[in-house]
User: What shape does this take?
Amino acid sequence: MMLMLLVLRNCFSELGILFCTWLMGALVFGTIMHYIEVDANSGFDSVLYSCWWAAVTMTTVGYGDMVPKTNIGKTFGSMILFISMIYIALPMTLIVSKFNTALEDWKQRERTISYYKKNQSGQKGTSLNDNKV
Assistant: This one.
């Protein structure tokens, strides 16, 4: 648990930028979809409802409460879905990389602590390199 908190703390600025750009995308895509679907009587009655649809679509939840009815709206919705899937997948490489670095640092710290504990208790210690996991 502490390792995950460390990784999240290390990724805080990147995740903040990701969240802010995601919010901007939901606002822009929702506004565009509102103007595409405003005359189709498909539930995109306000920009706020359209932004809700964009947020649900961008997170790939897709409740189905609102769906585009025009061909342009369906095409634009499909584009939003594919763009957001790529957008959500990109930060995973960053998080996994930082998790791997934090895990290696944690393992090294644990090896160092166990090495010094062995030497302090009077036991014959081994070098740090002999304790690799």
Observations:
- The first helix runs from residue 2 to 10.
